[in-house]
Amino acid sequence: MIDTVLIPESTVITSKGDGAAVDVSGAANRVLLVTLNISEAIEQEAIELSVFGSADGEAWPAKPIAALPQKFYTGQYPLLLDVSTQPEVKFLRAHWEVNRWGRGPETPKFTVGATLKEVPAELLRPSSQRS
Where are the domains of the chain? Predict the structure, then answer.
């Protein structure tokens, strides 16, 4: 059962970047829950989190396999990620883009963390089929 970190908690982000590659090849169920936790943000800024998949953890495609829309405020934001139709994906990596506008410093500043958890198959079945 995968339960790991994509971005360590309390990471301060001021520019675009990438997290470390996470091996998901051992997942029994290839439906995963990504949760972005924004614990600090300043006004007039946005962060966008994307998840990229790779077969080897070295070469990454140009397009993400999933993305959260831009977020502006503190909170927890879930993203359900189904890679069951992409058997070649063995590694996942978080990528983030940030921007800031308006008055004050031009550098954005978010304090975030992101987790990755495997969703148990029994939770994905309709409730009428659960025992």
Answer: 3-110
